[in-house]
Design goal:
It is a single chain. With about 230 residues, the protein is an alpha/beta fold. The protein has a single domain (about 5-120, about 180-225), classed as Rossmann fold (3-Layer(aba) Sandwich), CATH 3.40.50.300. Helices cover about 50% and strands about 15% of the residues. Strand 5 (about 130-135) and strand 6 (about 140) form a beta hairpin. Helix 6 (about 120-130) crosses helix 7 (about 170-185). It starts with 5 loop residues before the first strand and ends with a helix. Bound molecules: BIS(adenosine)-5'-pentaphosphate (AP5).
């Protein structure tokens, strides 16, 4: 069952974009494209891109648009993106969204379907403070809501669970401020383009997944793409 569209999950740090993008990507057999994961990989590999991004990410600031756009264009050129994809954490500024529109048009995709996750700041801080991520496969856990069966070990592949260096409370506050300043205006941008949907991201993981599946189904009913 191919998605045949670009999906964008928009929301602040800890809103559950990655958790839901991972599930939806598996369900629809398309890649989950997280610019945060791509940047963390570049940092871990010590590439030139990673070296420029690292200090900004450590401060909770956004990486410049030109760096992110180059990375995304390169990723979309891979054959696995031909049937659609789910972006998590991208675009994050209006210029990124404008450039993405041009890339999608060039690649023969229609308008993206954008879902904005609404979650209160208190819940975001609580969630991010409890997040542990598998260092091998990237599966995400939460010590309060969704702990692994064995502490510190991934249920799926046995990988070691680690905490992100930008998840400390001070840096999360900076990331939330960057979201309010630069990313929130994207909701208006996509609303004006008639492609914005919203979910209540404070509900449980299963319930949010169900709401997203309903959104996918409604969109498919409108334009024939899943
Ligand atoms: P990025 O990696 O994109 O981080 P983010 O957007 O801040 O989002 P998070 O990954 O923190 O949260 P999430 O919404 O995915 O939540 P998750 O599902 O993990 O960006 C990191 C940095 O990279 C940025 O600060 C910036 O510097 C740079 N960057 C990245 N993209 C960029 C771009 N396009 N332009 C410029 N710079 C860029 O869930 C969080 C926790 O909650 C987990 O523990 C999870 O298990 C739990 N949880 C999830 N859903 C639920 C639920 N429904 N109920 C209870 N718990 C839940």
């Amino acid at each position: 069952m191919a998605l045949n569209r670009a999906m964008i999950f928009l929301g602040p740090p800890g809103a559950g974009k990655g958790t839901q993008a991972n599930r939806a990507a598996k369900r629809y057999g398309v890649p989950h494209l997280s610019t945060g994961d791509m940047l963390r990989e570049a940092v871990a590999q010590g590439t030139e891109l990673g070296r420029s991004a690292k200090p900004l990410m450590e401060r909770g600031e956004l990486v410049p648009d030109n760096i992110v756009m180059g990375m995304v264009e390169e990723r979309l050129a891979r054959p696995d993106s031909a049937q659609g994809f789910i972006f998590d954490g991208f675009p994050r500024t209006v210029p990124q969204a404008e450039q993405l529109d041009k890339i999608l048009a060039r690649r023969g995709f229609g308008k993206p379907l954008v879902v904005e996750f609404h979650v209160s700041p208190e819940t975001l801080l609580h969630r991010v403070s409890g997040r542990w991520t598998c260092s091998v496969g990237g599966e995400t856990y939460n010590i309060y809501e969704r702990p692994p069966k064995v502490p510190g070990i991934c249920d799926v592949d046995g990988g070691k669970l680690i905490q992100r260096s930008d998840d400390s409370p001070d840096i999360v506050r900076e990331r939330l401020a960057a979201y309010d300043r630069k990313t929130k205006p994207l909701a208006d941008y996509y609303r004006q383009h008639g492609v914005l949907e919203t979910v209540d991201g404070s509900k449980g993981v299963e319930e949010v997944s169900r709401e997203l599946n309903e959104i996918f189904a409604r969109a498919a009913g409108r334009d024939g793409h899943l």
